[in-house]
């Protein structure tokens, strides 16, 4: 614990982020350990949902996070590679005690991050301070070995519930033509399926998942989505949709 100073401040607006030389597997495990004790200390239960994006370091960090949770006897449900909103949705629908998402969202590929959920809501920087304080105390492995780990593919459930929230008939009648730019991110797991189920003709670009983001930078700014704008004009699309890396923000092109 010596490397944590009394004035450390790991938590930003939404979790902890940095390059791998900062957000190491060791730090990820300790953050998960402290988070588990924080959740248990609040009497919220032991069920934690876990998910990650496709960045080159995400699987490594996610495994470390899972270890830190299990070492404290948490019941971990790992959704694996998933859009970030899916994890938040599952956490709320199934009343999880909390959640952890390994993703740097719209940041460059060399970055990664861990987002924390208390229930289904993000842990604020102010609440993150309490987790940091627990990191300075001895790791609590009294419940080591009593945790439980299982995997769950929540994508079919997520797609089903999204469809149920829409007027499918009305949308299908419009026969939309959509240019979809998933930015090589996890949006590729859900957005093309959803749009095609809604009867849209989908013109997909950057439509394979790649943690190096070869197609464009992850943040869907106007400058970064010029190809989406150009293709939408060229094919006469009704709309263009450009997602960021973990599918929690989008830009629309008319």
Could you please describe the fold and organization of this structure?
- There is one protein chain.
- This protein is α/β, with parallel strands linked by helices and 254 residues long.
- The protein is 33% helix and 22% strand.
- The protein is built from eight helices and eleven strands.
- The strands form two sheets. Strands 1, 2, 3, 4, 5, 6 and 7 form a seven-stranded mixed sheet that branches. Strands 9-8-10-11 form a four-stranded mixed sheet, with helices on both faces.
- It starts with 15 loop residues before the first strand and ends with a strand.
How would you summarize what this structure contains?
Helices cover 33% and strands 22% of the residues. The chain contains eight helices and eleven strands.
Using DSSP, what is the number of strands?
11
> What is the SS-derived class?
alpha/beta
Output mean pLDDT: 92
Which geometry do the CA atoms define?
A: globular
Cα(first) to Cα(last) distance is 52 Å
Could you tell me the radius of gyration in angstroms? Answer: 19 Å
Main sheet makeup:
7 strands, mixed
Helix content: 25-40%
Helices, by number, come to 8
What is the string of helix and strand elements? EHEHEHEEEHEHHEHEHEE
Spans of 5+ residues with little confidence (pLDDT < 50)? 1-6
Strand content: 15-25%
Strand and helix map with partners:
Blueprint: E1 16-19, H1 25-41, E2 47-52, H2 58-70, E3 75-81, H3 84-93, E4 98-102, E5 111-118, E6 121-122, H4 125-135, E7 148-151, H5 155-164, H6 168-174, E8 177-181, H7 191-197, E9 201-205, H8 226-235, E10 239-243, E11 250-253
Parallel strand pairs: 2-3, 2-4, 3-7, 8-9, 8-10
Antiparallel strand pairs: 1-5, 4-5, 5-6, 10-11
